[in-house]
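[step 3/7] fold_predict: job queued, chain A
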Amino acid sequence: MIREICKDEAFLSQRAEPATVDDLSVAQDLLETLEAHREGCVGMAANMIGVNKRIIVFDNEGSYMAMFNPEIVKQSGPYEAEEGCLSLNGTRKTKRFRSVKVQYQNAKFQMRLKTFTGWTAEIIQHEIDHCEGILI
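[step 4/7] structure written:
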């Protein structure tokens, strides 16, 4: 189901709760909402649709990917980026890393570890910030 984009900064500033297998439908809603906004959006976190859970979805080099309970375990190559967000007006400068190693669970809640670089790494960092209640 395509959901409305949350713009409530007080809600968006809360740390997300861990996702469970009961939250699979939230990931599906996130994917459908991201697809509906594909013209101006490359990633979303669950709190952007009003659900305070650690779930992100993003464009992974042309196909959408969902992560449950993602955590960055290693990062390298800092740089300054300027990003926008569907939940916020305008763009803001922020520090990002060219490479991030992420530990997460897939849709079967199996633990995975994967390194992402470049644009995909930047998207993931932005969405994990949402899970931490960090607004750019």
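[step 5/7] annotate
The chain has three helices and five strands.
The mean pLDDT is 96.
exit 0
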